[in-house]
Amino acid sequence: MFTEIEGDFLSGQKISEELGCSRTAVWKHIEDLRQEGYELEAVRRKGYRIKTIPDKISHNEISLGLKTETLGRKIHFEDSVTSTQKIAHQLAYDGVPEGTLVVAEEQTSGRGRLSRAWYSPKYTGVWMSLILRPNLPPAKAPQLTLLTAVAITQAIEEVTGLRPDIKWPNDILINKKKTVGILTEMQAEADKINSVIIGMGINVNQSLEQFPEELHSIATSLSIELGEKVNRAELIQTILMKFENLYQKYLQHGFYPIKLLWESYAISIGKRIIARTITGTLEGKAKGITEDGVLMLEDDQEVVHYIHSADIQI
Ligand code: BTN
User: Fold this and answer.
1) Which atom of ligand 1 is nearest to the CA of 107?
2) Which stretches are labeled DNA-binding (predicted)?
3) Is the ipTM of this complex over 0.85?
4) Less CB within 10 Å around the terminal CB: N or C of the chain?
């Protein structure tokens, strides 16, 4: 109701009538909002007015105005966790429905690809894990990483107007610096996915000084690139919306429409790259991705290599 009234006063009477609860219950909820860091003005005969919204995100802020059908309909929100991936794995194992989202303000042991750490300081970024239960063979799961990259890129474009690039398979860069990382993990049997857990780490409102020194030349945040703070709850809502559209398209029509979108954002296609895989280093031209999201690299002898997992240098 406060979101709809856009900064105007809302009377306790109106809130209690609309929500069908007592005035005491309204007062308690107002106190809860204050605890969450909202500054609320109370004026006799006028009611309550939100003066400032905290620079925190809350369960409420993410769900208020969320227009998705399934994604984010159930949100598990925490102030501080070791890793949202860890919590999501447990929830998925416990049988929560598709679309359940785990969001935290801080991760103390955020995980990246290849067992790297993911730096996740409090109140600055979006650290979240989405649980999906697609009826697909396990080999298709990597396609969801590419779909995620497209969804986040589209959401960043819409919310900030910035123009991110995707570096295969799952890095989102702005001005060549890493802004987003995606970690896809799954619980599966030989021929059936039980759940896919998509971890998304987005550097949103960090200043350069808030990054460790060793990341200064390779990482950035949306606010550094934009020159102003970005509303994290709005970004999460937009990601979920874009994701749901793409996911429905993917389940109905397969990977091809997603592949086209992914290629339109890809920074490395057609360029010379170095791919460091666990079996060695390859150098050549990135030709594109296959129907399954596998990277095709053509070396100087014109031999095409199919790369499933690697670190790419452009
Ligand atoms: C990468 O190495 O680029 C992937 C980074 C993924 C980080 C996200 S933050 C939310 C989720 N929880 C984690 O511990 N990792 C992922």
Assistant:
1) 14
2) 12-31
3) yes
4) N
